[in-house]
Design brief:
412 residues, alpha+beta, Tetracycline Repressor, domain 2, 2 domains, transmembrane helix, mitochondrion, mitochondrion inner membrane, 4-hydroxybenzoate polyprenyltransferase activity
């Protein structure tokens, strides 16, 4: 009688123990199969693919009348063999397969637009132009110019990502109403606001580390651009010409690259270069904005695409003229000669073809024309390098002391 009472008491204790374990484990998320059981009943196994299989458990007795719970599987195993509270360990693991990249990494790539590198190219080209122009009149080593160009490429990737993150944080309510942007990570919830802030802080911290590699003049000049970076996304809400603010922000590298090499600015070169790049940005971003003009009109977002409207072609032609003239003056101030001016003419032909063949009612054509501007940056850079090389070779042919005359560190 006493033994039967003890046995029933132990079984009751075991049942309570298992129920407590079920309650604890039910609150956890596991990426491995788990078993939640009850005595002499049916249980369900939930695996990582969310399929359910059915099995049975039963209780047995062992030596010294200890209660055991056995799961009937291919190889029966003991789950509990003691009457003591024991919580199954949380064997978590990180699955770094395709699902991990899609769910955990891809939203951040999209938030920073790193899956669309065209923005990095467009941000980097003015930096590369100014670095190359600064290298022409200087006497710095080739390694210095190349290292600086590499740092600016990294910085362009980070700052473009930071700018896009800030833009999406400001525009989450607007993006939800625009067809092209309604699947962005902050809109869908793939990235929370807190996660976006942390991600932004990480990008800006890395960008600051890159900036601190430059001279003091450039550090101050680079830091001063942050006001534009943070406030640009608001321009489209309050001005009809947000592309001007974008151009002012996006082409800061036309100033910063020169100072990174020379230690200060030559405004005769950097001023026209900056204005020319800014006007170029108005051209390509107006083309880009024509993709969303109908949605922008509905939600109250402003752009030069809406402002120019039917006059887009003549307006962009004026911007192209300002851009080409400014770039030409910058090359003249840097004494880059005919090779560079020919590159400017090639740029005019390329941009004019975009403007006058653009189908403003076709979003796909707008996107294609916008992306083609990556080659514009390469055309101008090739002109700078060709002009610098010709100047360097002319100095050698004339027997000038290269150390005392304007020479290109890219060809020394």
């Amino acid at each position: 009688m006493l033994n039967n009472s003890i046995k029933m008491y132990k079984i009751t204790q075991l049942q309570n123990l298992i129920q407590r374990t079920i309650s604890l484990n039910a609150k956890r998320k596991f990426s491995v199969p788990l078993t939640y059981s009850c005595i002499c009943g049916q249980i369900y196994l939930k695996n990582t693919h969310h399929r359910y299989e059915i099995t049975r458990v039963h209780s047995t007795q062992s030596d010294q009348h200890r209660q055991k719970v056995v799961i009937e599987t291919t190889t029966p195993k003991i789950v509990y063999d003691k009457l003591q509270e024991k919580v199954l360990p949380d064997h978590r693991h990180i699955d770094v397969g395709p699902g991990f990249w899609k769910d955990k990494v891809d939203p951040y790539l999209k938030l920073a637009r790193w899956d669309k590198p065209i923005g990095i190219y467009l941000l980097y080209w003015p930096c590369a132009w100014s670095i190359a122009m600064a290298s022409v009149p200087g006497t710095v080593p080739l390694q210095t110019s190349l290292q600086t160009a590499g740092l600016f490429l990294i910085g362009a990737g980070l700052m473009r990502g930071a700018g896009c993150t800030i833009n999406d944080m400001w525009d989450r309510d607007v993006d939800a109403k625009v067809e092209r942007t309604k699947t962005r990570p902050l809109v869908t919830g793939a990235v929370s606001e807190t996660q976006a802030v942390v991600f932004l802080a990480a990008q800006l911290s890395l960008a600051l580390a890159v900036l601190l590699k430059l001279n003091c003049y450039s550090i101050v000049l680079g830091a001063s651009s942050m006001l534009l970076v943070v406030t640009y996304p608001l321009a489209k809400r309050y001005t009809n010409y947000p592309q001007i603010f974008l151009g002012a922000t996006f082409n800061w590298g036309a100033l910063l690259g020169y100072s990174a090499i020379q230690g200060d600015l030559n405004l005769a070169i950097c001023g026209p270069l900056y204005i020319g790049a800014l006007a170029w940005t108005i051209v390509y971003d107006t083309i880009y904005a024509h993709q969303d003009k109908e949605d922008d009109l509905k939600v109250g977002v402003k752009s030069t695409a809406l402002t120019f409207g039917a006059n887009t072609r003549p307006a962009l032609s004026v911007c192209l003229g300002v851009s080409a003239l400014s770039l030409s003056l910058a090359g003249q101030a840097a004494d880059l000669g005919m090779p560079y001016q020919l590159a400017v003419l090639a740029y005019i032909a390329h941009a004019a073809q975009q403007i006058y063949t653009l189908d403003m009612e076709n979003p796909e054509d707008c996107a294609s024309k916008f992306k083609s501007n990556a080659s514009v940056g390469a055309i101008i850079l090739m002109g700078i390098l060709a002009g610098g090389y010709k100047k360097y070779m002319n100095n050698i042919a004339e027997g000038k002391n290269i150390q005392d005359t304007a020479k290109s560190c890219l060809f020394s």
